[in-house]
Amino acid sequence: MEPLRFTPSSPYTMGVELELQVVNTRDYNLARGAADLLERLGRVELPGEVKPEITESMIELNSSVHARHGALLAELRLMRDAVALHAGKLNLAICGGGTHPFQQWAERRIYSESRFEYLSDLYGYLAKQFTVFGQHIHVGCGSGDDAIYLVHALARYVPHFIALSASSPFSQGVDTAFDSSRLNAIAAFPLSGSMPFVQSWDELNAYVAKMYRFRIIGSMKDFYWDIRPKPEYGTIEIRVCDTPLTVERAAALAAYAQALAHRLLAERPHRPTRDAYLVYNYNRFQASRFGLRGNFIDPHTERHVMLADDIARTLEELAPYAEALESREPIEGLRASVASGENDAAWLRDAYQRTHSFTDVVRLQAARWAGREQ
Fold it and tell me: How many domains does the chain have?
């Protein structure tokens, strides 16, 4: 295996990937409509890219690269409108959310593409259970060593992104009691979790080469780490977010990652240590289970605090960076969400309490995604 070469990109540029649900407009269950929808969208000029995902009931929106939140949001709105329009012509609808509330995984079909078929052969039923929906956020880095530092530095903030994006309280027709049940499906894969404690690009290369020699991996994309370097793009990729219910929240989360990365690389407030990972799984579970109400252990001070309080303090610290990056508005929006204690998981639970129908919940999700909230 050739050594991984990190292709530098403009620091703090950002892009997102959004995995979306394809549902029918009869009972709002997942539909095997991805191929037909992608065929239609292939004839439409879009600023980003729309791609298939592992099952026929999923699509993925990929943005282009942006330096500012406003441009990213404008692009996501254009893509959302085009996808919603063409889905409607096929009697389909699109929605966000980290899980579909009542779909049955055994009914899913693997999308006909060699990579997805390989994963299905390798992982068996887990591949169909992987019909969950996440947002991935890319942030540009100037070097491989910066990317390694940023992966470790951002590990402390993984619970922030989980709680702020959580939108998967329901699964297989029940309330899971988790704000983000999606991450439990990810955790089943053997190469998930956190990146090993390597401290330079050369160390990562040595680790990847060894895993390749063991024939455990074929490439970097076989690692499903919560945050991973993406050397061909020159980015780090945050992978713990549920897909939000709106493109506005998706763009705000990207702006948060951008401002946070800027501060961490500019100030280098903490030297990465192995000890930080001693609390990693605890903090991750608390955010997944309880969302903004979760407990949080600061790995540097060892203090226990409310996760919402830690996020609020961090957002305040980021104010100068948000101002410089022209993202004050989305950062303030996240601050308001934290102050109210509301995330998308709370919205979904409220929708079910109002309607007592998972079908109606998904109908409302689709309307919200399309910008026609009812």
Answer: 1
